Amino acid sequence: MSHVMNTYARLPVALSHGEGSWVTDTEGKLYLDALAGIAVSTLGHNHPDLIMAISAQAGRLLHSSNIYRMPQQEQLADKLAVLSGMQEVFFCNSGCEANEAAIKLARFYGHRRGVDEPQIIVMEKAFHGRTLATLSATGNRKAQAGFEPLVPGFIRAPFNDLAAVHALAEQNPSIVAVMIEVVQGEGGVHMADIEYLRALRTLCDERGWLLICDEVQCGMGRTGTWFAFQHAGIVPDVATLAKGLAGGVPIGACLAAGKAVGLFGPGNHGSTFGGNQLATTAALTVLNVVERDGLMGNAIRQGALIRNGLGAALAEVRGVVDIRGQGLMIGIELDRPCAELMTRALSIGLLINVTAEKVIRLLPPLTFSEEESKELVARLAELIHDFLKI
Ligand SMILES: *Cc1c(COP(=O)(O)O)cnc(C)c1O
C-alpha cells in the first residue's frame, strides 16, 4: 500500500519528462499536453528561458525570508501592478493562500468600516481552494461535506445573476465584498458576462464593497489578456493569481487596488516561503516570455482554432451540448458524465481533464502551436465521437 495519503483519483500514468507541449511517461509513451498541469505550465515544458533563470537563481540564493528585502519580489510586484492597473501585491505559494489573503483583506476592510461580522458574496459553482475559508467560499457541497463547521461569513448567489446580488445588498448590511472567478474553471468553464462584471463593479462602488476577482486559473494571459477582468474594462479592488504565474514553481499573489490598498501593516499577514527568490525569478521570467513572444495573441488564435475545429468536427454529433471558452481556457460540455475520457485520452496519447462531471476541460500551454491545435482537435474529436456513438 502506498504511504501517500489517498486524496486524488490518480490516473495510471507517471510522467517523466517534457518538451514544449509534449510529455513522455516512464514507459516512453508520448502525450500531447492539453492541460499544462491544470493551467500551470504556461510556457510548456523544458522552456530554455525558464530553465536558465531558475538554474542561475538556484546557484545564487533560493530563499532568504521576508525578514529581508527581496529585489526580485519588488520587481515582480512592480510588473504585476503595471499589467493589472493595481497597486500592491502580497506573495504566497498557492491559489488558496492568495484567496485566504483576499478574504482576510475583505474582513479587515469590513472591520475598519465598523462591520462586526463582515460577509462576502460568493457564487454558485465557485472554486476558491481547499483550505477551510476557501472551501467555505467554494460552491460545491460535495467538496465541503464532512468538514463542517465551515467558516462563516459567506453568502451564496447564482453566477451571472445581477438581480440576486442586488437583492442580497438590500437584505444584508454586513456585506463587504463580492468574490468571483471571471471564468469559472472547476465549475465547468463558465464565463461571467461582460455586462454583469461591469454592473458588479458599479454596485461595489456604490455600496463601498470590495470586488474580488479570483484569477488563479483564468489569469496570466490564458484568456488573451493578462487578467480576464480586462475583457470587461474594469479593475477590481482585489485580484488573486497563482497556477500559471511562475510556470510550475509554486507561487500565489494577492493584488490590491483602490479601497483595498494600505490596509495590512506588519503582523497582519505573512508567509515563510511567499515570494522567495526562486519563485519570483521564475514568475518574472514567465511574464517576460509571455510578453516577448506574444503568447496572449497566440492564446486567442489557438483558442479560436481549437473551438472552431471542434465545432466543425462535432457538428453532426449528438450529445455535444456546448463548446465554449475564451483563449486557451476551453470547455466542451457533453450530455452525460464523461470522466472516463481522461483515461481513454491517455491511450491515444492525450492529456485532458474532465470537470463538473460532464465538461471536458482544455488548458494547454500558451506556447501551443497551430499544428498542435490541429492535432488536439483531431485526436479529441475522434475520442468524443467514439464515446458518444454508443
Ligand atoms: C486552482 C484554483 C484555486 C486553488 O489553487 P491551489 O493552488 O490549488 O490552492 C483557487 N481558485 C481557482 C479559480 C482555481 O482554479
From TrEMBL:
Gene coding for it: argD
Presence of the UniProt keyword Amino-acid biosynthesis in the record: yes
Enzyme class label: transferase
Organism encoding this protein: Dentiradicibacter hellwigii
Binding residues annotated for N(2)-acetyl-L-ornithine, in chain numbering: 130, 271
Pathway of action: Amino-acid biosynthesis; L-arginine biosynthesis; N(2)-acetyl-L-ornithine from L-glutamate: step 4/4
Keyword annotations from UniProtKB, A to Z: Amino-acid biosynthesis, Aminotransferase, Arginine biosynthesis, Cytoplasm, Pyridoxal phosphate, Transferase
Binding site for pyridoxal 5'-phosphate: 127, 214-217, 272
Residues found modified as N6-(pyridoxal phosphate)lysine: 243
Enzyme Commission code(s) on record: 2.6.1.11
Subunit: Homodimer.
InterPro entries reported in the protein's UniProt record: AcOrn/SuccOrn_fam, Aminotrans_3, Aminotrans_3_PPA_site, Class-III_PLP-dep_AT, PyrdxlP-dep_Trfase, PyrdxlP-dep_Trfase_major, PyrdxlP-dep_Trfase_small
The record's free-text note on cofactor binding: Binds 1 pyridoxal phosphate per subunit.
Name recorded for this polypeptide: Acetylornithine aminotransferase
Family statement drawn from the similarity comment of this UniProt entry: Belongs to the class-III pyridoxal-phosphate-dependent aminotransferase family. ArgD subfamily.
